[in-house]
Amino acid sequence: MTAGGACPSHETRRQGPNALVRRLARHADLSDAETGLLNRLSTATRLIGPRSDLVREGDDPGGAHVILSGAACRYKLRPMGTRHIVSYLLPGDICDADGATVQRADFSAATLVPSTVAFIPRPLLRELTAMHDGIARGLRAAKLAEEAILRMWLANLGCRSALERTAHLFCELLERLRAVGLAGEAGYDLPMTQIDLSITLGMSTVHMNRTLHELRRQAAADLRGRTLHILDRARLASIAEFDPSYLRPVLAS
Q1: pLDDT of residue 18
Q2: Which of 10, 45, 247, 249 is most deeply packed, by most CB within 10 A?
Q3: Which pairing describes strands 6-7 and 227-230: parallel, antiparallel, or unpaired?
């Protein structure tokens, strides 16, 4: 991944923050004032090109990056150059929510496609969590969901077949994108390439192609270019043994 330039975009500034509000409102009750505050974060957005680093391992993030449109990923890079994707960041997701306290990133993060990104500096991030209970609860729940996703990915790599874990990832992405209004019952735009998918799911590109072909043969899902067509949602969920409850942590009142 390489560092890339950025330029402002009026259209994405106007529309993007809604994804963050929808993401946090899914986990916590936000007051009108908190909603307005989150919407005003749109004044600091940038349109960043694809395959551009947002954070590099070992650096101080200085705050938090929020994905408002597009998509990004966290990844680990071995000294020999091999990369493994450890999470996907979709609209409404916060790349480094611990940026209020953590001064050294233990991962790198980069955009996958052109993305609108807002940056919340550390002092403002601290203020948001200290002064606004709804935002603090939303951020905490979003962090718990993120940790649950990581545990599920580890379980998928350890005990599910290539077909099952591919189906599971497709179901997860559908659920996460639907939560911010970016997917319908029939499918969604997939921001990652087949190479990205193979790296994420721990298989070769040849095996990835065979797995996608098998999902199509079973009339469960069909990936055409960058669009995933859901042919039979129930069948896809059955292959994956998908239960979306891990994406919806419940905080004690």
Answers
A1: 80
A2: 45
A3: unpaired
Which numeric CATH code is attached to 161-247? 1.10.10.10
Cβ-contact 107, 55 below 8 angstroms: yes
Q: Model confidence over 100-156: pLDDT tens digits?
A: 888 999 999 999 999 999 999 999 999 999 999 999 999 999 999 999 999 999 999
Tokens of 188: 């969604």
At the topology level of CATH, where does 6-151 sit? Jelly Rolls (2.60.120)
Q: How would you classify residue 105: left for phi > 0, otherwise alpha for psi between -120 and 50, otherwise beta? A: beta
* Residue 44 pLDDT: 73
Which is nearest to 119 in space by CA: 23, 55, 26?
A: 55
Is the C-alpha dihedral spanning 5, 52, 123, 127 positive or negative? positive
Cβ partners under 8 Å of residue 178, min gap 6:
184
Q: Which residues in the chain show pLDDT less than 50?
A: 2-17
User: Whose structure tokens read 């052109």?
Assistant: 114
